[in-house]
Amino acid sequence: MLLSDARLSFADDEVIAQWQERQREELARWQEWLQSFPPQPVWRVRGRRRSDRKHPARSVPLFTIPPWWRRLPGALRFGVSIAADSFVWDYLQARSLRPRQVPGRFSPEDNNHSSLPTVVLIPGFLTNWQFMMPIAETLTRLGLQVRVLPQLGFMLDSVEALAEQVIDDLRVHADTGPVVFVTHSKGGLVAKRVLLADPEGELALGAVTISAPFAGARAARLVSGTVPLPYVREVVMLRPGTPAMLDLARETAANSRITTISPIVDEIVGAGGALPGARNIAVSSIGHNLLLADARVHRIIVREVRRLVRADAANES
To answer: Which domain of life is it from (predicted)?
Structure first.
């Protein structure tokens, strides 16, 4: 209405003066309303209201950094955990370098007629099947049929090439029924690629992955792609954000058949162990390799294998 009056009677000085007076009155009402608020926030000290507004309110920091002597125990625990993790890797790697035949209890010919599916172990980059022996021996004692894949070598090939080798092996031994993968590190990526190629679950029911870099391995950034060494490209492709990692992350159809087990601190993977849509379990441990020798992880694996079997039976019914 004010705009219509001003537009129709723009030449009328009296109407313009009235319109300006209304604006001043409206502005005065707004200023009066704003002045009704305190100039500074009211704060309380020990339950008593402070009436003196001359002093500014105290600023409370969101967090304070404790002194170094209080941070020392945590730093020592972290250092000891990383040292133990490195020792586990060195020990298992040194043991896996010895030439050794696959034990009969880990071969496809040995069938203990267990009601649970066969567990197929897939190690991580630069490790072979012997690196997973702590898990293999424990799962065998707990009544699971375990099988290893020595043809994968030290997992130096690409994820796609390794997945093809796993699929070929599963097709050869399809008479044993669908399996469940238990993997470490890069082996989790291989298992997911196999599950994507087998959407009906005819070859594999699911996977339990340990310290798998589904969002990329942070430590792979430390390797330069210009180094003239073999298999450097495969390490570089494990970096977060590479086309290979993004392509695998976009494929989510198999995520519901995967259980991830990750430590609270992983110096190799970083914070990319969880998988959207999967069953993600965090273990109060520090280190990329220490979970392989953790009895808690072994019990979780058995529990998750049984859960995958129940889920598959429920889907069939």
So the answer is: Bacteria
Average pLDDT over residues 40-50: 50
Neighbours of 21 (CB within 10 A): 10
Give the span between the Cα atoms of 198 and 196, in whole angstroms: 5
Closest of 178, 183, 181 to residue 200, by C-alpha: 178
Place of tokens 């914070």: 271
Q: Greater confidence, 247 or 143?
A: 247
Nearest of 200, 194, 165 to residue 182 by alpha carbon: 194
CA quadruple 9, 13, 16, 17: dihedral sign? negative
Is 90 exceeded by the pLDDT of residue 32? no
CA 65, 70, 76: angle at the middle one, nearest 5? 115
The residues pairing with 206 across neighbouring beta strands, listed in sequence order, are 180
What the block records as the tokens of 72 is: 């020392």
pLDDT tens figures, 217-246 = 988 888 887 777 778 888 889 999 899 999
- Mean pLDDT lowest among 6-10, 121-125, 300-304: 6-10
Please, are residues 273 and 216 in contact by the beta-carbon 8 Å criterion? no
DSSP secondary structure string for all residues of the chain = -HHHHHHHTTT-HHHHHHHHHHHHHHHHHHHHHHHTS-SS---EETTEE----SSPPPPPPS--PPPHHHHHHHHHHHHHHHHHHHHHHHHHHHHHTS--PPPGGGSTT-----SSPPEEEE--TT--GGGGHHHHHHHHHTT--EE--GGGTTS-S-HHHHHHHHHHHHHHTGGG--EEEEEETHHHHHHHHHHHH-TT-SSEEEEEEES--TT--GGGGGS-TTS--TTHHHHHTTSTT-HHHHHHHH--TTGGGEEEEEEEE-TTT-S----TTSEEEEEEEESSSGGGG-HHHHHHHHHHHHHHHHHHHHHH-
Supply the pLDDT for residue 60.
55
